[in-house]
């Protein structure tokens, strides 16, 4: 019989990933898998089994695509008529790379309450320092 994991039985680890020289999208797909917990044998779709993920050196990742900086747009809408605001990938990267990482990973997680809880376990830092040294159990890939 298959064992169903309960929320209080989940053991969470802290994983540090250094973004220096890694491809942006490929790295974030790995992060989404870690946040969901799909890499664990106790994975259950309706339970948040994922680990905490810390990304350091966020501004040093590499980006593929010739014109992605100018062509890719991120949209937001307040709900009122004519209130769609768009921001270019390059502008968002220069102004707030942390927001860019969170938006990209959020799109790969479930669009439910469970997904909102999962994204809270992602910590992104532009530099090489982070305040979570006490929690670290293993280094990332």
From TrEMBL:
Q: Does the keyword Nucleus apply?
A: no
Q: Which UniProt keywords apply?
A: Ribonucleoprotein, Ribosomal protein
List each coiled-coil range: none
* Residues making up the signal peptide according to the UniProt record: none
InterPro entries given in the database record: Ribosomal_uL13 (IPR005822), Ribosomal_uL13_bac-type (IPR005823), Ribosomal_uL13_CS (IPR023563), Ribosomal_uL13_sf (IPR036899)
Report the CDD domains cross-referenced here.
Ribosomal_L13
Please give the SUPFAM superfamilies that the UniProt record associates with this protein: Ribosomal protein L13
GO terms, biological process = negative regulation of translation; translation
Q: What does this protein do?
A: This protein is one of the early assembly proteins of the 50S ribosomal subunit, although it is not seen to bind rRNA by itself. It is important during the early stages of 50S assembly.
Name of this protein: Large ribosomal subunit protein uL13
Q: Which organism is it from?
A: Campylobacter geochelonis
Gene coding for it: rplM
